[in-house]
Amino acid sequence: MKTAGIVIFLIGLTLTLFTTITYFTREKVVDLGTVEITAKKAHHLTISPFIGIAVMGIGGLIFWQSDKSK
Q1: Burial 25-58 (b: 16+ CB within 10 A, else e)
Q2: Beta bridge partners of 18
Q3: % pLDDT > 90, the chain
Q4: Integer CA distances (angstroms), 23 to 7, 12, 20, 42, 58, in order
Q5: Cβ of 11: how many Cβ atoms within 10 Å?
Q6: What is the pLDDT of residues 24-53, one digit of tens each?
């Protein structure tokens, strides 16, 4: 259980530090028979730092409870 707590804590830390995830998709702009023109379009996924802090808290509680049970 300690390992799971540490992993969840690190995921929460990552979510807190990196609050925006950017990914790209290709969209067809022009289609003229055999000629196709595509463009990359950026999409942003924004995550609140409070979610990362909450996940870190859950990971810390799991780690603390697994240590206390022994």
Answers
A1: eeeeeeeeeeeeeeeeeeeeeeeeeeebeebbee
A2: none
A3: 70
A4: 24, 20, 10, 6, 28
A5: 15
A6: 999 998 988 888 899 999 999 999 999 999
Is the per-residue pLDDT at 20 higher than 70?
A: yes
Residues 37 and 16: their CA atoms lie apart, in Å, by 38
Angle at which helices 49-68 and 2-17 pack, to 10 degrees?
A: 160
- Tell me the C-alpha distance between 38 and 11, whole Å: 35
Angstrom distances, CA of residue 26 to CA of 7, 22, 30, 43: 34, 14, 12, 11
Percent of the chain at pLDDT above 70? 94
Q: Which structure tokens are listed for 31?
A: 């289609």
3-state DSSP assignment of residue 30:
strand
